[in-house]
Design brief:
Helix content: 40-55%
Shape: rod-shaped
Organism: Streptomyces zaomyceticus
Distance between the termini: 175 Å
Protein name: M23 family metallopeptidase
InterPro entries: Cell_wall_metabolism_enzyme, Dup_hybrid_motif, M23ase_b-sheet_dom
Keywords: Coiled coil
Largest sheet: 10 strands, antiparallel
Length: about 375
């Protein structure tokens, strides 16, 4: 490395203190030989601490790093005005060759790229790092304060838009979840309503089926009852027809003039004890059924009377006869003539007074008894 040219005697104040009065006889950077010569001559010589090129370069590089960091890392403080950092001017050192900051490891990456514009600026200002200026990122890019504020507002707005988007997304997800819950609840309610309607419909169908079954059973029971009643009536009719074939009315032509238990003063008991068939005197009288003549003759107020005793012990009385054609102990058949109508005894006119008594002697209604035998009065 070439030696430095002679400099004034006073050392350079690196921190802005200025230089002492020039001393052309002194050496700025003495060598070992000069020092040895000064010692031999017995004089004193003030030796300024030697600054190597590397030290000086380190100072410049440090300032460059600060400038690079200020330009790149601190550009976010957009609201602060630029701050100037001044360094003392260095004397012209034409033989001082400093390394390019872009070539230094770890530093070149922090500096902006070399362009023709930056190279021209460096040539115009050979000591660009003697004055470092703190500037914002927008200033380095040539942007105005209004543009920086606008970009900051856009950044805040963008952050707000991102927050609003996140909020909208959360609200959308909540609405979707609520909609899903509402849809599930609605589906459950519709399913429950459908199940309830189906159950009610099934219950109604079961009730209708049960009612139909009951109605059918009732109709069948009524039909059966009617059929049974019809069969019973038919059987009774057949029985009565058969009885009618074996029983006969006592007269063929008549009119009923008094009924059983009819009240009146004409009867000593106060009521009528038999059934009266009015007919002309001499009208033939027939046996109602096959029987035995229990008695035949005069009987006081009854006049001439015939008593027929049937097989079951029932007695049939024929009273007020004008004549009798059978006698006691005689057996007669159904429809056989046993006497004739008359007006004997306590009477007001010709008629047949007929009474019916059970085997125990109690009187019963002759008309009802004749009907029970299939006969019509």
């Amino acid at each position: 490395m070439a030696s430095n040219t002679p400099a004034p005697e006073a050392p350079f104040d690196a921190f802005g203190g200025g230089a002492a009065p020039s001393a052309p006889d002194t050496e700025w950077n003495p060598t070992e030989d000069s020092l040895r010569a000064q010692n031999r001559s017995g004089g004193r010589h003030r030796v300024v601490k030697q600054r190597s090129n590397f030290a000086r370069s380190s100072t410049v590089l440090g300032v460059g790093v600060i400038a690079a960091v200020g330009a790149g890392g601190l550009a976010t403080a957009q609201e602060k005005p630029p701050v100037a950092i001044s360094l003392p001017d260095l004397p012209d050192l034409p033989d001082l060759h400093l390394p390019d900051p872009h070539d230094l490891p770890g530093v070149g990456d922090l500096l902006p790229e070399k362009t023709p514009e930056t190279v021209s600026a460096a040539r115009a200002n050979p000591n660009p790092l003697t004055v470092a200026t703190y500037a914002t990122l927008d200033d380095t890019q040539g942007a105005t304060t209004e543009q920086a504020a606008h970009r900051a507002t856009q950044s805040v707005t963008g952050a707000g838009d991102a927050g609003e988007a996140l909020r909208a997304r959360i609200l959308q997800q909540a609405e979707q979840q609520q909609a899903s819950a509402d849809a599930a609840e609605k589906a459950a309610a519709e399913k429950a309503a459908a199940e309830k309607a189906a159950a009610e419909a099934q219950a109604k169908a079961d009730a209708a089926e049960k009612a139909a079954a009951e109605a059918e059973a009732k109709a069948e029971a009524e039909a059966k009852a009617k059929a049974e009643a019809a069969a019973k009536a038919k059987a009774e009719a057949e029985r009565l027809a058969k009885l009618a074939a074996s029983y006969s009315m006592p007269l063929s032509s008549y009119s009923v003039s008094a009924t059983y238990m009819q009240s009146g003063s004409m009867w000593s008991s106060g009521y009528h004890t038999g059934l009266d068939f009015a007919a002309p005197t001499g009208t033939p009288l027939k046996a109602v059924h096959g029987a035995t003549v229990k008695s035949a003759g005069w009987s006081g107020s009854y006049g001439y009377r015939i008593v027929l005793e049937l097989e079951d012990g029932t007695e049939v009385w024929y009273c007020h006869l004008s004549s009798m054609t059978v006698g006691a102990g005689q057996t007669v058949g159904t429809g056989e003539t046993i006497g004739r109508v008359g007006a004997t005894g306590n009477v007001t006119g010709a008629h047949l007074h007929m009474e019916v008594h059970t085997a125990g002697g109690d009187g019963i209604d002759p008309a009802q008894w004749l009907r029970s035998k299939g006969l019509s009065i």
